[in-house]
Amino acid sequence: MNATIGIPPAVTEETEPFWNAARDGRLLIERCRDCGAESFPPRGICRSCRARTMEWTEITGAGGEVYSLTVNHQRWLPDLEVPYAIVLVEFPGHPGVRVAGRLRGCSPEDATIGMRVEVGFEPGPGGFAIPSFVAGTA
Ligand SMILES: [Zn+2]
């Protein structure tokens, strides 16, 4: 087990565009051309209508809100500071999309459900950029 700060970088045909965009600091999700449903993580098939006509769309703008969180006390990597919060984040206007990642810029005990966060990326194993979140200032 590695890559526990965020999503394990399992690169497949379905997820390669996501990891490429992540290197540029962009968060891509899938959207169904047939029914418009959005989903994450990418899997190449629509959760709503089972169509395989998924296209990529980018989440931009005002960041997201913490939907749930857990605090990790396990030191998976030697230079990892513990504890830290792992948050599951929802984005306004993107129902069905929840992205997990480490929360930065805020101590775990200050993390709350509903707090505003910005998307950020951190260098991860194998040169991948791993999604993480930065506590909002608002
Ligand atoms: Zn669909």
UniProtKB/TrEMBL annotation:
Record's protein name: Zn-ribbon domain-containing OB-fold protein
Pfam family name, one: zf-ChsH2
Domain of life: Bacteria
Gene3D superfamilies hit by this protein: 6.10.30.10
ChsH2 C-terminal OB-fold domain segment(s): 56-121
Organism: Amycolatopsis acididurans
Secretion signal, residue range per the UniProt entry: none
PANTHER family linked to this entry: BLR3430 PROTEIN
Record domain ChsH2 rubredoxin-like zinc ribbon: where: 19-55
